[in-house]
Amino acid sequence: SLSDSPVTLKILQNWVPRVSHYFDKEHYTYVGHQIVIQESIEHFGAVVWPGALALSQYLESNQEQFNLKDKKVLEIGAGTGLVSIVASILGAYVTATDLPEVLENLSYNISRNTQNMNMHKPEVRKLVWGEGLNEDFPVSSYHYDFILATDVVYYHAALDPLLATMVYFCKPGTVLLWANKFRFSTDYEFLEKLCYIFNTTILAEFPESNVKLLKATVREN
């Protein structure tokens, strides 16, 4: 049920004014670390969307409720890698995944922001939603405590494979945290499907940005 009243939040301006003259780098501060993100204008996945800011902020502020230390975390549609970097700083074993064409920029951002730090080194892997899941991530060897997803619902043709991917990785005990800017009726249709399959709660809403942050877990029989 979505009836529990979610907390209403505002996305804080967590980025630092740019000192550099390059248009392609954004500077953020989370969990006491400055994070420099290189964006690319070629791909959807290479821009920091508001859902990533919302989830990064929420993870930073709710470390007791969602303790990522030494937990196995999978980010699907990791994009620029901001959320994966924050999860790493919070102590998680992170696997950041996205489409092949996004991986180079994703790997660059993750390695530059996590090198020389005392943390589990994040892994970057290709994951095309709904494709080759059994081959690339066999159930026998992969179990995640958390699945993170931000602004993954925008490309309407990809929604069924996205849902199938969420279902595949969400085992009993796994927590899915999904933050999304709600723009279209298809976004709400996807949310309905999610609620039908999973126990789903809205944890927080960011009304100024139209972002909702949801928690979903497998229904236990």
From TrEMBL:
Entry keyword S-adenosyl-L-methionine: yes
InterPro entries: Methyltransf_16, SAM-dependent_MTases_sf
Keywords from the named record: Methyltransferase, S-adenosyl-L-methionine, Transferase
Listed GO biological process terms: methylation
CDD domains: AdoMet_MTases
SUPFAM superfamilies in alphabetical order: S-adenosyl-L-methionine-dependent methyltransferases
Gene Ontology molecular function: methyltransferase activity
UniProt-recorded name of the protein: MT21C methyltransferase
